[in-house]
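Subject: sequence -> structure tokens, single chain

Hey, anyone have a minute? Need the predicted structure for the following. Not urgent.
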Amino acid sequence: MQYNPANPLIVQGDRTVLLEVDNPLYAEARDALAPFAELEKSPEHIHTYRLSPLSLWNAAAAGMTADSMLEALAKFSKFPLPANVPTDLRELVSRYGRVTLRRIDGVLRLVSSDKHLLEELARRKGLRDYLGDRVDDTSFVIDDAFRGVLKQALISVGYPAEDLAGYTEGASLGIHLRTQTKSGHHFAVRDYQRLAVEAFHAGGDVRGGSGVVVLPCGAGKTIVGIAAMAALGKNTLVLTTSTTSVEQWRREILDKTDLDESLVSLYTGESKAISPVTLATYQIVTYRPKKDGDFPHFSLFNQRDWGLIVYDEVHLLPAPVFRVTADIQARRRLGLTATLVREDGREEDVFSLIGPKKYDVPWRVLEQKGWIAEALCHEVRLALPSTDRMDYAVAEWRDKFRLASENPVKEDIVAQLLEMHDGPEDRVLIIGQYLKQLRSIADRFDLPLITGATTNNEREDLYRKFRTGEVRKLVLSKVGNFAIDLPDANVMVQVSGTFGSRQEEAQRLGRILRPKSGEPARFYTLVTRDTREMDFAHHRQLFLTEQGYSYEILDESDIAKQAEEAAKTSS
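Reply:
Had a minute. Here:
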């Protein structure tokens, strides 16, 4: 391999990879790295990736080989790869599937052709308690009840099992996709959605049936779930984040399949019906009357013979649902998400209990093909007013972020942005973390506000009015992060966020990425300079950098000038 000093990558012996942003080959190298490397830092000029075990195992589970990963590194590297990197990478990749779970003569077994490894694992504390009788040098009997916890234990010691034990079939359900929706529009599953379902289903083979599909917000993850239901033709339980999302799933299922309304029911705080297709919220499933009591709605997982369980927004899966998921490993499991990043660090549990990544498509690829809207991202930096600087200087460390987030100057920037985006085609969402700040914005500009306290009926009515154009500007609290269907939104103004949450940045950008004609979508994030908010903003932007987006950094004076020019043009 001929290495070239003009290339953009520097691969280091600790398995970090540095990528030069200003290099002409940056975008190509970034896209080559994304399937198997994890982005850790993304300042202006040099991005840092890490070849982490989990990122390599996800790539291996999706069919990528160690050789293809090394070829990608070598192709874009300035210098020869450090001698240990090829060895380390091959070793880590080879660990995926070195032990497997199989059903032999009806009995679950842990199997490995490497009898020395099996002997070592059998002696590991935290693992040996899940192993039953030894069958021979290459396998142990496993109690079916331990199938999930054993996989968790194996990944924690660095040997993720490939689960080839198969699944219970579940009760059959005749379900077919329409070619014309109930609402009268042509309907066809897009190519990438079809490929995602095929990767998950694997033609019914034991290598399919559990895993995660990663697609951008706005790319139709719900359609992937519905197409998977049709491919399997089984009773299905769908778990999602909110009653709004449950309603959206129900609308889509009835609109795009031939299922009768009587076969699709909601299991929420307001309705607890169970049908062949049941849609439930994580909130109701994890409800318990006492903090240390039982979860009464866990019984939902066993009340029908489910052939498929769909976990929508799997990056938000609550910890108690992991516990029950460990117990139902014989059910097929499909996770849907825009990002595998979890703020609680439980990505390994997603891998072992839901399944590895089966399919993903970079956001920019779908943007270039017109499946999601082009988006321009802007970070607007503004100063704290001099009157607030002393309060910030003397504030406790934990209070500084909120003081910076609630900078009153942000309201003036919002005023200018609303002026710039006041055309008849504009649909503007203003979203933030702090209710006092959001109420102030809603009052000042006479805009409707949706919070967690807004009733479902009122919320649905406002979303409907936004979709029809009767309301063109909405203020949203964190409820706007998750699974709301507002396809016409084309401007998002983020006035405050949840510390450094990458998943939140993904969700919020996704609100404006539904395909639309005309101008690109605009995402503005308002950040107070020289404060803790700047540090957290950099971490939030990691996700967008991974997906190929970059922020244009603007000063508050730039927005003032743009607003002034917009006003002149409109007059």
